[in-house]
């Protein structure tokens, strides 16, 4: 059966922490593809994200170019308002009726799954894989997950990369190097579009 990874995020900008967990997931779970799904607006970041969704998608596109196993799915950009994972997973279930879906997250994101819209439905639509992210241990993440959702989540250990988009934005604003934290093409696009220069 075809196995497809679904990786939602703000990707403001995409960095090697994201790319490594997508690659780990592909490799370990024998996924045929990983679809990156930039949100229109994260329900947890309403009013906070200045970079347009179209630009964040373009950053993803540049970062994954040349990897035939990685793709961009822009479905959330076509919907107005906050992007709910449950809606994305419903749409992908229709698009790929017989594939097994795997939703990828870091430990920090999955810890809050109890606050998502319809989390019970989310875990029936996709198997959740939570990768270790430096700063949030598996037990800390499990502590946040309501008991009835825990069976839908597989925790995956990895040597996590301690990189965040917040750190990248702060470095750009301060005029500091982001080389080797994000792909070269992402740096070029950040420079071309003059992103992250002013305080949001
Ligand atoms: P920000 O600092 O703006 O919140 P971020 O680096 O956390 O950005 P997001 O777009 O918020 O990136 O994250 C999308 C998904 O990727 C989430 O599930 C998050 O847990 C995961 N993720 C991001 N960075 C890492 C990392 N370094 N290691 C593991 N998972 C990560
Ligand atoms: Mg985040």
Report what the structure shows.
By secondary structure, the protein is an alpha/beta fold. The chain has helices at residues 16-28, 53-64, 85-95, 107-110, 119-125, 138-144, 147-150, 165-173, 184-192, and strands at residues 3-9, 33-38, 70-72, 100-106, 127-131, 153-156. The model has no long low-confidence stretch (mean pLDDT 95). Helix 2 (53-64) packs antiparallel against helix 9 and helix 3 (85-95) runs parallel beside helix 5 (119-125). A six-stranded parallel sheet has the order 3-2-1-4-5-6, sandwiched between helices. The chain contains nine helices and six strands, in the order E-H-E-H-E-H-E-H-H-E-H-H-E-H-H. The chain has a single domain (3-162), classed as Rossmann fold, CATH 3.40.50.620. The chain is globular, with a radius of gyration of 16 Å.
**Care to count the β-strands?**
6
Largest sheet: 6 strands, parallel
Lateral strand order in the biggest sheet: 3-2-1-4-5-6
| Portion of residues within helices | 25-40%
Sheet-strand content, in percent, reads 15-25%
| CATH superfamily membership | HUPs
List unreliable stretches of 5+ residues: none
- The N- and C-terminal alpha carbons lie at a distance of 45 Å
Structural class: alpha/beta
User: In one word, what is the shape?
Assistant: globular
> Can you name the CATH architecture?
3-Layer(aba) Sandwich
How many structural domains are formed by the residues? 1
| CATH fold naming | Rossmann fold
CATH class label: Alpha Beta
What is the rounded Rg? 16 Å
């Amino acid at each position: 059966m075809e196995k497809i990874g679904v990786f939602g995020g703000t990707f403001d900008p995409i960095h090697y922490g994201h790319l490594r967990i997508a690659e780990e997931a592909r490799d370990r779970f024998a996924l045929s593809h990983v679809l990156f799904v930039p949100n229109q607006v994260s329900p947890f970041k309403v009013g906070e994200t200045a970079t347009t969704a179209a630009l964040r998608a373009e950053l993803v596109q540049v970062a994954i170019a040349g990897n035939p196993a990685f793709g961009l799915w822009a479905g959330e950009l076509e919907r107005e308002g906050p992007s709910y994972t449950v809606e994305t997973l419903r749409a992908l279930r229709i698009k790929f009726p017989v594939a097994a879906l795997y939703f990828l997250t870091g430990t920090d994101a999955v810890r809050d799954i109890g606050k998502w819209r319809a989390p019970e439905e989310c875990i029936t639509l996709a198997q959740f894989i939570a990768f270790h992210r430096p700063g949030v241990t598996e037990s800390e993440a499990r502590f946040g997950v309501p008991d009835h959702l825990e069976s839908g989540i597989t925790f995956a250990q990895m040597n996590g990369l301690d990189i965040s988009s917040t750190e990248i934005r702060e470095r750009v604003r301060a005029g500091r190097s982001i080389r080797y934290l994000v792909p070269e093409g992402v740096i070029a696009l950040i420079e071309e579009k003059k992103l992250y220069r002013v305080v949001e």
